[in-house]
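Supplementary Methods S3. Complex input for the iron/sulfur cluster-bound model.
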Amino acid sequence: MAQDVLPPCHAACPALTDTREYVRAVADGRYEDALDILLAANPMSAVCGRICHHPCEEACRRSSVDSPVSLRAIKRFVTDATREYRSHRVPGRAPSSGRKVAVVGSGPAGLAAALDLSLSGVDVVVYERDERPGGMLGATIPRYRLPYEVVEEDIDDIRRAGVEIKTGVEIGTDIGLQDLCRDYDAVVLALGLAESRSLAVPGVDLDGVHLAIDFLRRARAGGMERLNGSVLVVGGGNVAMDVARTAVRLGAEDVTAVALESVDEMPAHKWEIDEAHEEGVKIINSYGPVEFTGDGRVAEAVFRRCTRVFDDGGRFAPEYDDADRISLPADTVVLAIGQSADTVAIKGAGIEESAPGRIKAGPGARTSADGVFLAGEVMTGPGSAVEAVASGHRTAAAVLEYLGVPPAPLVHVMPSSPAVPDIEDIPEDVRGRMSRIARVSSPMRSPAARAASFEEVEGTLSEAEARKEAARCVACGLGAEVDPDKCVGCYTCVRICPYGVATVGHTAAEAPAEACLTCGLCAAECPAAAISLQRFGRGLVHERLARALELNPGARVAVLLCQNALASRRFLTSQQAGNGPPAAIVPLPCVERLAAVDIMAPFESGAEKVFLVHCGDACVYPEGRGRFEQTVSRAAALLKAAGLRDDALNVWFGRIESEQDLERIYADSTRVGPREAADR
Amino acid sequence: MIVGQQKSLDDIWRMIAPFSRVLVVGCNECMAAAHAGGEAEVAELASALRIRARNEGRELEVFEFTPKRLCEPEYVAEVLAEVARCKADLVLSLACGVGVNSVADQAADLFVLPAVDTLFMGTGAEHGVWLEYCAGCGECVLEYTGGLCPVARCSKGLMAGPCGGTRDDGSCEVSPDVPCVWKLILERATRLGTRERLLEMPLFKNWSKSSSGSPRRLVREDLRIPTEDCKEGDTR
Ligand SMILES: Cc1cc2nc3c(=O)[nH]c(=O)nc-3n(C[C@H](O)[C@H](O)[C@H](O)COP(=O)(O)OP(=O)(O)OC[C@H]3O[C@@H](n4cnc5c(N)ncnc54)[C@H](O)[C@@H]3O)c2cc1C
Ligand code: SF4
Ligand code: SF4
Ligand code: SF4
Ligand code: SF4
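Predicted complex, serialized as structure tokens:
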């Protein structure tokens, strides 16, 4: 990357997924490359495409203009669109280092660590006590959000990279940790937080009172009986929402989540709360449980008002108003108030704990025992899948260092400092000049349909939707770069930048990365050729034209095509398949950015006719349309002067919805001659 | 800056008819700022020539080169090296006339042709608009006229205006596109309270210092490096 700061979406991803690049690859129609980019950072990409809490989107700079790019949905599109490719994809391993590592726990943290170690030539065995690998992803996250086949897709990849997974083996009971320490050069404990916390209130032992993890685990395995009557969920986090929505699907007539926190303080993500609401879950805020009553089986729950959850220092220190109590009928109660580790794995191994059930973590993810490391939530506390992956990467790096094995080139090396500098927000005056473009989100089934079964609630973007959404990304940070040696200070860039970004400094023009929207109009018009656009290099047109001509030698028609005008990659790849039209198709990230000389290039190569396909209404830079039209007129005038016919250059303003109209152009490209003026 | 404009492709085509290996040479200074001959315009012209040649079935090789400027001997040396490299038989200059002269002066056996009409000294007032602001008259009168040049900006070059032809909208009777500079001069002097200064303007202007005299040259003995062969006449 040319700059040392990242786009904020990239920097915000705990695993530092190169968001901008996979989105660009989707726009290019390079879905397989997009998958490679995703997997390079996050081996659980299919999973994360479904359930990631997507901090990347929260950070996306479009948020301040309209709404963030649907990065998670695009990621999901990529993993779904490339299953076939992925099934043949075998990541290359470094030659064997002769070292062996055992990983305990097959959640995202353990798997990510195992993958990095295996790629680096370490022999890795993952021990998992469950019958199937995946940790919480496969065991408790409800099926309606994450089908297990998706978890398997990611795990298959990891297996193909040489990781062996042994399920049904519990460390600490079936095999002692000491045995692992003896048989392996290092051990990674990625135990997760397997247990739900309980409450010290009267009645928790009554029948019908469950712990969330247990409940979800049984529900996921299909072992949870149908529910009826009222279900009370105690808790206001994401797990509580999963429990509540699962209860709805198990047949409960009335599901209420009672949260200690106020609406604004609830730890659950807003979208989880919204989806639960839509499915009929009620939420009562600011009450905490006092007791559960009933005759053998729970029948009622009593709550008191919580007046304050956190103290001034932000620590959890609830205060109550005992006078304000409510009783609610409850046929079933599920406690979803937090998780703790099950540390049976270290039983008798003499590993230091900082508190009972809390394994002490030192620098470099080390435990007190030599060669025993920690990864994932058992070390970091509760978080998300992608954070667990990031933790796994970091621990793998520490283990490799311990073993003296260099990380293989494929290993995703995380910086030691979690804070990565990123380009700041789009400045306000620039924002004000940008067009608002509607976000395309994943399709959701209707709430009623969702509530009726455990089938997946969300769908995958269609190719057209994914492409349309990818086009909204402005590739932050890949904007104009001015060569100060060439700049003559003519102010052209300043005068034409539609967003008021370019300025002329003392020595030369500047387009500050945090402000530039990477439209490239200035680069197209700089008379000194001093501006290059990182997103769209000067040589790109020639490069792609040369490739198109190679595929289609002697083509008499060339199509310079904004790839955002395409609902599918059919036209981007048809030539490769050899069944395309007899035209040199040159897909480009944008045609507004073309200079007159770029438009003329195909004629130099012998084309008799050139179609310029602009993405029309799909364009993220409608502000540049006027300049584009002027550039086209300039090119047309030059071409005319060079003796070409008036109809040699044709402009077509497309729309992603009317991709099939391109057929017309292609039909046309078979006969070179006079034609109707372009569709304008 | 010096402002210029590319000649029409037809004119250029006619000029280069006898040549088969053309090096298009630009100037990445004034002519770039004038959108007439920077690296981008060099590429455009070269492309247009290639396309026309292909269209007319003519053998023509077109090369491109854009030094920073073309108005100093050192830059010409760069161009000559490029000519040798691509075995060009013509330098087609998109620099101003100074560049063309420089090449012609230094390369006795090389053809050099202008693809730009050099126009004037002026300003790029807005994208796509350039205005003449200075005529290089050799004896600046801006001291008296409040910074607005009657020599360059009055259609008749009057040294004491306005002539009486100023239109109601303030434009010059010669062309509605030209604001009457004398009107502007007077207004400005009134605003700044410097109308008497106008009266101090010398009654006679020495036009021999302008381009109407013999070719101008400037020799600064305080700067000149004294060497054996640096004699009068070398600076031509
Ligand atoms: C209900 C629920 C919903 C969630 N929803 C989301 C979500 O939508 N998005 C998101 O990003 N994150 C979500 N998470 C969080 C995410 O699942 C965790 O962050 C992640 O799974 C933690 O990974 P881990 O590898 O640290 O631990 P885990 O996934 O918990 O894996 C630990 C593994 O270690 C195994 N293990 C433990 N002890 C032993 C032993 N002694 N021997 C052998 N094996 C052992 C366990 O069986 C388990 O398989 C959710 C979590 C829960 C509980
Ligand atoms: S617009 Fe694209 S590059 Fe910029 S923050 Fe959003 S997703 Fe990232
Ligand atoms: S358009 Fe090019 S030459 Fe002119 S100021 Fe901008 S960078 Fe410099
Ligand atoms: S690339 Fe576009 S937004 Fe950036 S400086 Fe140039 S014209 Fe402005
Ligand atoms: S009208 Fe003004 S600008 Fe025109 S000729 Fe007369 S004095 Fe000069």
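Strands of chain B lie at 2-6, 21-25, 61-65, 90-93, 112-114, 116-126, 129-134. Chain B touches chain A through 29 residues (CB under 8 Å).
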